[in-house]
Design goal:
- It is found in: Mitochondrion inner membrane.
- Component of the MICOS complex, a large protein complex of the mitochondrial inner membrane that plays crucial roles in the maintenance of crista junctions, inner membrane architecture, and formation of contact sites to the outer membrane.
- The protein has 108 residues and is mainly α.
- The protein has 3 domains: 1-30; 35-68; 70-108.
- It is built from 3 helices and no strands.
- It has helices at residues 2-30, 36-61, 70-107.
């Protein structure tokens, strides 16, 4: 029993490293890790493979699948992040003013 307790963390770690290494290999082999041209080719391959798979899946399930575009989701996330970064200085300034005003009101 004690030997199993010592081996289990090693097996868990080895499993995690294997999964991470496999994911990294698949990403590299697919062209996701590389230049923009390789990435756009990989995206085109993914789009070509996903559409038939979704149609096949809806035949088995029996209901329509909601349209989802990873590209649009990525773009909206990037836009929100950039907007938050651009608005950060004025937002911090406003919060600082509100905090100072609150402290002034407490002191009075």
């Amino acid at each position: 029993m004690a030997m199993a307790a010592k081996i289990l963390p090693v097996v868990k770690f080895a499993t995690k490293v294997t999964i991470a290494g496999g994911a990294l290999y698949v990403a590299y082999d697919s062209g996701l890790i590389g230049g923009s041209e390789e990435g756009s080719v990989a995206l085109a391959r993914a789009k070509a493979a996903i559409a038939p798979a979704m149609e096949e899946w809806t035949k088995y399930i029996g209901f329509e699948v909601i349209e989802f575009s990873p590209l649009d989701a990525w773009n909206s996330g990037v836009q929100k992040s950039v907007h938050a970064l651009s608005a950060a200085p004025s937002t911090v300034s406003d919060y600082t003013k509100q905090g100072l005003q609150y402290l002034k009101d407490l002191i009075k």
